[in-house]
Amino acid sequence: MNIAEITTYKEGGVYTHVAELVKRLQHPSLIITGNSKLSGFHKDGKFSFFHIPCMISLWELYFITAPGSYKKVRQVIAEKNIDLLHFHNPLFTFGGALLRKSTLPKIMTTHYVIDFKGNRVVASLYKSIIRWITKSIAKHVDMIVCVNNEYLPIYKQWGIDEKKLVMIPNGIDTNKFSPGPSSIKKKLDCEHLLVYWGRLGYQKNIALLIDAFKKIKTPHAKLAIIGKGPDLKKLQTLAGDNNNVLFPGYLPDDELLEYARGADIAVLPSRGESWGLVIGEAMACGLPVISSDVGMAQELLGEERGVLLTKETPSELAGAIDALLLDKKKAQAMGKKAHSFIVNRYSWDEVARQLEALYQRVAASKRSLKKVRT
Questions:
Q1: What is the block-wise mean pLDDT of the chain (374 residues), using blocks of 10 residues?
Q2: Domains and CATH numbers, the chain
Q3: Angle, nearest 10°, between helix axes 12-24 and 277-284?
């Protein structure tokens, strides 16, 4: 069976999810993207890509691709003998046509956020759009995969057939994200290091982290904001001439791990997450994590495995950072608990096994339905 995984290219947790999944699938996979300027086939190690160039991005949610993109994707799907389509919720202009017209088995994983913190009007509008999108997609797919248990009853309430719903969580590569030596503090010439990694966009609320960092009382500290995204210049302007706020960019795994293993604290002040992949990755590295109450944060960071923000103000976050930097024993104990929790409960091998079984089940069901109709 040949699988097409339809997602963004090298941006955010959704891409990480797909990359980790494809590494472990027993069947050949083609990753189809539509959010970059790249075009055509592209091989990168174990990964095979087909890129449709993006013309315009709307709110990092909908990507407008060139006219004729659906025809190109359809041709590639036929050429590569694709047997099943797995959508990972970014919306491309060619995606709607694929959902409506393709007769192949189709699965959608809903990585997007339902509850969005911030302006009430914006949050309400956002949730209404997500509800409309999800209900529309549900009509055209065979299964919807939720990465968060809390989404299942919400989707049922929206009128989506519960037989189409299944919960399969995100996984963490605990071989890669693990405690280890690092010389990053020496390289950066600091005593304390805070890290954030991920997409630099409005949803991630990184401005709150920068404002909080300006308020901390602990001396000789630096903040590394790792990643790329549309808010980069805005965040650099907010940081101003503060040389202790660093923007290393999008880093390869070995460089990212230098920061993750050498940091004192990881901070995720996001306005909304479906799961919170970076939280899990940081925990796997043995880091204490400070996070807003989003996605799976309560379950992941409960029982003193991390710190959950309640007010989500710069003062609260600055206080939480100072408290952990001051109490090293507490921070280390928190990091050890976090590491053990992730290693024992979340494994990409298990996630891939569950998805592989789902692919087989959906494909077999589709074949049986075709036989009945003929």
A1: 95 88 94 95 94 87 90 97 92 92 96 76 82 93 92 94 94 94 98 96 95 98 96 97 97 96 97 90 97 92 96 96 97 97 89 95 84 58
A2: 3-171+347-366 (3.40.50.2000), 184-345 (3.40.50.2000)
A3: 60
DSSP states along 307-365: EE-SS--HHHHHHHHHHHHH-HHHHHHHHHHHHHHHHHH--HHHHHHHHHHHHHHHHHH
Question: How far is 136 from 335, CA to CA, in rounded Å?
Answer: 42
Which two structure tokens, joined as six digits, stand for 257? 């791990």
Q: Which two tokens stand for residue 191?
A: 């005593």
Instruction: State the CB neighbour count (10 A cutoff) for residue 129.
Output: 14
Taking the C-alpha atoms of residue 85 and residue 109, their distance in angstroms, rounded to an integer, is: 11
Report how far Cα 127 is from the mean position of its chain's Cα atoms.
18
Are the beta carbons of 266 and 260 closer than 8 angstroms?
yes
**Residue 39, SS3?**
coil
Which tokens in the block code for residue 265?
A: 């604290």
Q: Are 317 and 269 in contact (CB under 8 A)?
A: yes
What is the pTM assigned to this prediction? 0.80
SS3 82: coil
Check if the beta carbon of residue 306 is closer than 8 Å to that of residue 283.
yes
| Alpha carbon of residue 181 to chain centroid | 26
The answer to whether residues 194 and 215 touch, using CB atoms and an 8 Å cutoff, is no
